[in-house]
Amino acid sequence: MRNSQRWASVALFLVIVLVIVPAAIAASGRVDLYYTLTAVALLSIASAGVWLTFYIGRINIGQGAYALVGGYVSAILITKGDISFWWTLPLAGTFCALLSVLIGLPILRLRGVYFAMVTLVLTEVSRLTALAMPFTNGAKGITSIRLPAELNIFGMTVIPDFTTLANPKLAFYFMAVVMMVLTYAVLWRIVHSRLGHLCRSLQQNEELASSIGVNIAWLRVLAYAISSFLGGIAGASFVAISQSLYPSSFQITDSVNFMLNCFLGGLGFVFGPMLGTLLLYFGWDLLFATGRFQLLIYSGLMIALMLWLPNGVLSLMDRKEARK
After folding, report:
1. Residue 236 and residue 240: Cα distance in Å, rounded?
2. Does a structural domain hold residue 11?
3. What is the pTM of this model?
4. How far apart (Å, rounded) are the C-alpha atoms in residues 80 and 145?
5. Residue 214 placed within a domain
6. What one-character-per-residue DSSP string does 144-211 give?
7. How many domains does the chain have?
8. Which domain holds residue 233?
9. What is the pLDDT of residues 5-55, one digit of tens each?
10. Where are any strands of DSSP class E within 20-165?
11. pLDDT, tens digit, for every residue of 224-240?
12. Residue 270 lies in a domain
């Protein structure tokens, strides 16, 4: 019964994001919403990676660094290597994953608070590196990045050339949504696999997990690598949409927001980052009307939500079930 309800929920979600939302936007004429929802989908992908590091008991405040690095890898390969965006996407994610392994091997041995402090500086280090390196074009950034070309597999066109489309914003929306759905499907599968059960043991008692033969260091590095891979492909996708990239494209604020998305949605729920991203993105825009009080009201609401719902908005479902 629960499996049938789960699949029904998934089917309903797919119908909403792939059919109802595009139809509603087309009817309203608000094509600008395609970009807004595309950004939400990509931000939720990066946030999903941060959630995975929370799942092993580590606070990651450096996801913006991997989004920036992934963006530069994709931009450089497209502009200087004449490589299709679709091939740069996995390459950017893989580069970020390998980089995170080099960084994670020493710092993941630190206790949680020290790991969080080290990741906090990663985004600024990446920004300064992008400013200093000649192949990143410094503060001028990389511009005039072409739209994604068609993707051919075995001589068959799987994805058309975006420059030939009448509405590339709609194409980007579908691209981001499909990537988001695949990301959370993989994340859900990881959590409900043997690997996920081992990762959960790290939350409870690392010493006990180590005593029964769990390779704690390997699990930490693996989770951090997957997290960074997601950050890299999210950053690369933003490059394709904006067709430009600058050292300031991803900053420390973005890294903090990726973390807040997880808190707001719920650290105990796989789909928490997705909901948290949606609420935080649109909530901030709605508060824009309050002018100079925007940041004050936003901060107050975040504190109140974390006090009232320490396990995130999705914990309301648990409270509802408990009342039954």
Report:
1. 7
2. no
3. 0.93
4. 10
5. yes
6. -PPPP--EEETTEEEE--GGG-S-HHHHHHHHHHHHHHHHHHHHHHHHTSHHHHHHHHHHH-HHHHHH
7. 1
8. 32-251
9. 778 888 889 999 999 999 999 898 888 899 999 999 999 999 999 999 999
10. 151-153, 156-159
11. 999 999 999 999 999 99
12. no
